Amino acid sequence: MKISNSTRTSIFTVLLVTVVTLGIGSYSAFHTRSAELSEVNASLDFVAQEAIDNPEQSIGAALFAIEQLTLNATLTLLTEEGQETLVRESSLSYLGAPAKDLIEKATARPVSIKSGDPYQLRAVRLDEKDFLLIARSTNAIDEHFEVNLRALGVVTFFVDLIAGVLLFFFFRRANRRDEYASLARMQEFLGDASHELRTPLTVVKGYVEMLSKKQLVTAEDQDRAFTRVGTEINRMENLIQDLLLLAELGESGSRDIEKMDVSELLSAHGTDFTTLNPGRKVVLKIENDLVVVASRDYLSRFIQNAFTNIMRHTSADAAVTITCSKSGKNVLIMIEDAGQGLPEGAYAENIRSLNRFDKSRSRENGGSGLGMSIMSAVIEKLNGTFSLRKSALGGLAVVASLPLAKD
């Protein structure tokens, strides 16, 4: 199943929003938990230090420190035999001293004890055998942490929902704008196409009517009429084919896009053009191994249209130069002729559907008048740029730039 660009963009945006929201929220939740644990550990260290600083009255000093800080802490005395005496009780569900190795670690720093009611433990060695154990529950900290994580999940859900809704309306508005623009282009296209088809149809209708009413009596007049009708029919056929190609180029998809050697393609067409035009001086300036991502059919049509325009609109001995070279990250294709060129204002004119720079040229030569429009549409379809310039040979230079294929 093909996924549209808007869907891919929406999925990526929502994922990005999710990652950012979870990242910031998670950092905040863990930082808060760490700060709360640090506060608990600092209070345990303070009580332990008071007991250490008063070895003769360790238990009393510890109790005084707990009262001084108003701590909710449990204080017990553990003997060598494992007997434990509860000195001070707290809200902690204390189930007895943990393993001896944990107690040894707790003499240096507070350690976390995982149980039904988790707590932080700090131990003070009273002599070589007995320990004073100080414990504070961390159950409230864990509950806060879980609440923060649940809140983060809810916030993330609503942020994603808002992002999804905003993206939906954004792309719907963008699609409507594109649809309106496409409709406007289609209306202009259909209007221009109907205008272009009306002329040959009028000619054909007129001659057919004259022939049917036998107004053309002589064989010479009838032959001229049939020839004229055939010419106009051919012109309509060319116009319809070009209109269909322009319509195809306007669609979102592209046919047979692949990596291809544009140097080889242009050389082959250039050689054919030279063979079919022996009276012309044709110069090929083509660098080797220039690869682009394109449709061979589309690019061939571009080259053929350029050569067809030269054969239709220049003298049989007009020189031609075909250039294909690397220009930065692009391939530059330039086809120049020594013909009469275009009117001065045509070089700055926007190339669009059915735009003729010299309206008489196409009718005289049987063309549809869409050659330049097709060439421009082909290059645009292939993510390139197209322009018309004055040729160094004195005529027209057709210039196209296509991005080089990435390795």
Automatic annotation (TrEMBL):
Segments crossing the lipid bilayer: 12-30, 151-171
Domain (Histidine kinase) ranges: 192-406
Keywords, ordered alphabetically: Kinase, Membrane, Phosphoprotein, Transferase, Transmembrane, Transmembrane helix, Two-component regulatory system
Keyword Transmembrane helix annotated: yes
SUPFAM superfamilies in alphabetical order: ATPase domain of HSP90 chaperone/DNA topoisomerase II/histidine kinase (SSF55874), Homodimeric domain of signal transducing histidine kinase (SSF47384)
SMART domains assigned: HATPase_c (SM00387), HisKA (SM00388)
Reaction equation(s) it catalyzes: ATP + protein L-histidine = ADP + protein N-phospho-L-histidine
Localisation per UniProt entry: Cell membrane
Main localization of the protein described in the UniProt heading: membrane
The protein's Enzyme Commission number: 2.7.13.3
Protein name (database record): Sensor-like histidine kinase SenX3
Source species of the chain: Candidatus Planktophila versatilis
UniProt lineage: Bacteria, Bacillati, Actinomycetota, Actinomycetes, Candidatus Nanopelagicales
